[in-house]
Amino acid sequence: MWALADRTGLDLNSPYAYVLWGDHFRSSSLIAEAPSDPTPLGFVMGFRPPEDHETLFVWQIGVDERARGRGLAARMLDHLVAELGVSHVEATVTPSNDASAALFRGLGARHDAPVVAALRYGEDMFPGGHEAEVCFRIGPIGQREPGVGTPTTQPPRGDSS
Ligand SMILES: CC(C)(COP(=O)(O)OP(=O)(O)OC[C@H]1O[C@@H](n2cnc3c(N)ncnc32)[C@H](O)[C@@H]1OP(=O)(O)O)[C@@H](O)C(=O)NCCC(=O)NCCS
To answer: Which domains does the chain have, with CATH numbers?
Structure first.
C-alpha cells in the first residue's frame, strides 16, 4: 500500500501507518493483484468510523497507472461494499481530482444511490497549500446488485484472514 500510494501521488503516510492499517483495518482495506503478476495494481485503505459502522470511509484509494481506466477502482469499492454490507460510503476528494470525483459519482450511479458532495475540510485546516477536501457521501446503498463484478483481490500482505 505504501509503494502504491507513493507511485500514485497520494499524500504519503509513513510505512508504519500502512502496516498498522493492514493489521487493524484489514476487513475494510484491500490490495488488488492480477493473477499473473504479484505486483499490486490497486489498493483501498478504508475504515468504518467508530460512531457509524454502517459507513465505509475510504481514506485512500489508488490504482497503478498501467491499470487505470479499466474499472479496477470501481470494482474494489463494490467488493468492499458487498463484503462489509455497509449502507454508505464516504471519501474526501480535492476539487481538482476529476478522476476521484467520477469514481465516487459512478459508485452512486451503479447502486442507484444518492451522492451528496459538501466541503468537509477547508484549505485553512492544512499547512503548506493543501487543497480543500470535499466530502462525497454515497447512500443508502443496497437497493440492487451493482453493475460490475468482483475483482481478484487479496488482503494486505501478512493478513491471515
Ligand atoms: C482515482 C483512481 C483511483 C481511479 O482508478 P481507475 O481504476 O482508473 O478508475 P475506474 O476505471 O474504476 O473508473 C471509475 C470512474 O471514474 C472515471 N474516471 C477514471 N479516470 C478518470 C479521469 N482521469 N478523468 C475523469 N474521469 C475518470 C471513469 O470513467 C469511471 O466513471 P464511470 O463509473 O462513470 O464509468 C485513479 O485515477 C488513481 O489512482 N488516481 C491517483 C490517486 C488518487 O487520486 N486517488 C483518489 C484520492 S484518495
So the answer is: 2-148 (3.40.630.30)
